[in-house]
Specification:
This protein is an alpha/beta fold. The chain has one domain: TIM Barrel. The protein has twelve helices and ten strands. The strands form three sheets. Strands 5-6-7-8-9-10 form a six-stranded parallel beta sheet. The protein has a two-stranded antiparallel sheet with strand order 1-4. Strands 2-3 form a two-stranded antiparallel sheet. The protein starts with a helix and ends with a helix. Bound molecules: zinc ion. The site of zinc ion (ZN) has 6 residues, from loops.
């Protein structure tokens, strides 16, 4: 798949050939995820350029020199920069949902990138004839449409990826940036009814790319109280890689609202060692001491290659880890009397 994308960029393979590769990757991923027994699956974002830029990839009003995201090992990912308006998504997430639904037999969770991440496309110096306000208004409308179509088309849940939440505290320790991100995302979330928001979730993590994170050194205590101000119901919280999980679980217990469902990360995609089902079981039981079992779920801490070209983990390892998550979660469910 990675070679195919490179071949397409170099003009060696055609758009239909690339589309066929994406299609095959989505189909294979769904088949293998279903084989793990997971009650809800995703398409593994196999057809996306990256978790952050899938909706805008190929737009002609972008230049590659946008906001840099620095990882702990020194490597940098750059967001694109918007050069002109008006702004429209090119490939919203429901297009990927359509593709996944052709193959899936179990409910699908659909990931979308947050409005706050894409707000960073607008340059500090402004764009002549297209104000930041105009951009944000268009962005909010695009994301509302994207999420609404995913819900209407039958996504089990829509997960907003909010990796920049924790990162924002590193960029601005006053947390003004964090609060502006949360306010912006709430402008999107408030457009949905309470019933619709039961099927909307938010993912938080310190980033995961090429063995490295961008904000694991930011204390969760600076993020979690505000995170739960987001008007979503489901929270997918990186936890497996935290050095002091009990401390984080205490904070979740304190700040999450009664209606929130908490999916705790039980798999660390950056760690090459495959977790055992028993380890996963114990992590769930530990979490159940702090979060009522009927409000508790499990997830992976983050994606295995959110920027799509990360080969630091093999596909086999990723599926081994997911199998351990599913098996360990089932063991814990039995012990908690949920099955
Ligand atoms: Zn993540």
């Amino acid at each position: 798949m990675i070679e195919g994308v490179q071949g397409f960029q170099a003009g060696r393979i055609s758009q239909p050939e690339l589309s066929a590769l994406y299609d095959a990757a989505v189909q294979d991923t769904i088949r293998r995820l279903e084989a793990t027994g997971s009650p809800v699956i995703t398409d593994g974002e196999q057809a996306k350029h990256s978790f952050a830029t899938y909706s805008i990839y190929g737009l002609e009003t972008l230049s590659p020199d946008g906001v840099p995201i620095s990882f702990a090992d020194g490597h940098i990912r750059k967001l694109p920069r918007l050069t002109a308006g008006p702004f429209r998504y090119k490939t919203p997430a429901d297009v990927y949902l359509d593709m996944a639904q052709r193959y899936a037999h179990v409910p699908l969770k659909q990931a979308v990138v947050s409005a706050s991440a894409l707000s960073l496309l607008y340059p500090q110096g402004g764009i002549r004839g297209y104000s930041r306000e105009q951009y944000l208004e268009a962005l909010i409308a695009e994301q509302e449409g994207e999420i609404r179509r995913c819900l209407e088309k039958g996504a089990h849940v829509v997960q907003m990826d909010f990796t920049e939440g924790r990162l924002s505290i590193k960029l601005d320790p006053t947390r003004r940036l964090l609060h502006s991100f949360i306010d912006l995302n709430n402008l999107v979330l408030e457009r949905f009814s309470g019933e619709e928001r039961r099927r909307i979730g938010v993912h938080t993590c310190p980033g995961a790319d090429r063995h490295s994170t961008h904000s694991a050194d930011v204390d969760y205590a600076d993020l979690l109280p505000s995170l739960f101000d987001l008007k979503a119901t489901n929270f997918y919280v990186q936890l497996a890689s935290e050095p002091d999980r009990k401390r984080v679980l205490k904070m979740i217990r304190e700040h999450a609202k009664n209606v929130h469902r908490i999916f705790v990360g039980v798999i660390d995609p950056l760690n090459p060692r495959v977790e055992t089902p028993e380890e996963v079981r114990d992590r769930v039981l530990e979490a159940a001491e702090y979060i009522r079992p009927d409000r508790l779920g499990t997830t992976d801490d983050c994606g295995f290659a959110p920027f799509s070209d990360d080969t630091s983990r093999t596909r086999e390892t990723a599926f081994d880890k997911i199998r351990a998550r599913v098996a360990g979660t089932a063991l814990a469910s039995t012990m908690l009397g949920l099955e």
